[in-house]
Design brief:
The longest helix has about 35 residues, at about 1-35. The protein starts with a helix and ends in a 15-residue tail after the last helix. The chain has 13 helices and no strands. Helix content is about 70%, strand content about 0%. The chain has about 280 residues and is an all-alpha fold.
Length: about 280
């Protein structure tokens, strides 16, 4: 009887609320995917048609064949990948310095990294646009990558510093006592142990860059246009091309979803599991 009550309490207090949250979060994406395979006549029909009588991939064919969306997907992939590499290339050394060295202003700088993320990124648009125009980087891959890096790197440094703080400093000292240089200690000891943290940080930067709209809109143009900016072109002043818009939104969501499915098992577990023998 007690076990049955505990099961019922768990169902009502944990499982059902969790299921409700999942449904609320996933429902818009499911509806978008269903709408993308509806004919235009079903999309505009009233009352609402929840499932098309004759599903079609015509919107996807038009999107890929008659628009510049394939190039926009490539632009987003290049920008997000470069932003991830740049973010990790700068964040890993910086996080190591903050985690392992004590220097004047360390706490102040760490606080500033966190404070930056408390302000709306729209405050950075004007000065960043002026700087990119002065450097001739508007409507270039490098300009958009640098723009995305400005808001991703501070939080990435904060995340990686927390991961590295979880790795005992005794491992560094033991490796250096055995004759390893500091660079060998980093590459052979710290980086393998911090791999889950580095992977999750890289995924964070990639997803943030892939989904970012405001900076991409201001810094891109005809030569470089990410998918978030390209989707806006399907929204006109008087009409909205719902078929192309939902098909594009579905394609934009797929890479991130597939990425998480492949890497999620690598992000589970302790950073230092098995590193120190008892």
């Amino acid at each position: 009887m007690i076990e049955r009550r505990s099961r019922l309490r768990r169902l009502l207090e944990i499982e059902l609320p969790a299921l409700l949250l999942v449904v609320v979060a996933v429902a818009p994406y499911v509806w978008m995917a269903i709408t993308s395979i509806k004919p235009d006549s079903d999309i505009a029909r009233f009352p609402v048609v929840y499932w098309p009588e004759m599903p079609t991939l015509g919107h996807y064919a038009d999107l890929l064949a008659r628009t510049s969306f394939p190039k926009n997907l490539l632009d987003s992939l290049i920008v997000a990948t470069c932003a991830s590499l740049l973010g990790l290339g700068l964040s890993v050394p910086a996080a190591y310095a903050f985690s392992r060295f004590g220097f004047v202003g360390r706490r102040f700088l760490m606080t500033q990294f966190l404070t930056i993320n408390m302000f709306p990124i729209v405050l950075m648009i004007i000065p960043l646009f002026v700087a990119m125009r002065a450097l001739g980087l508007l409507d270039t891959v490098l300009g958009v990558v640098l723009g995305h890096a400005t808001f991703a790197i501070p939080f990435a440094i904060w995340m990686l510093t927390s991961y590295l703080n979880g790795i005992p400093k005794e491992l560094d000292e033991a490796a250096m006592v055995d004759g390893a240089t500091r660079l060998q200690t980093i590459t052979r000891i710290l980086l393998p142990l911090a791999a889950p943290g580095i992977a999750s940080t890289g995924i964070y930067v990639f997803v943030a860059s892939w989904n970012e709209y405001l900076f991409a809109m201001m810094l891109s143009g005809q030569n470089v246009r990410t998918v978030t900016v390209a989707l806006q072109l399907f929204i006109g002043e008087y009409t909205i091309q719902w078929g192309l818009l939902t098909a594009g939104g579905t394609l934009v969501a797929l890479p991130v979803t597939i990425l998480f499915l492949f890497v999620q098992r690598h992000l589970v577990g302790g950073l230092t599991a098995g590193a120190v023998k008892s």
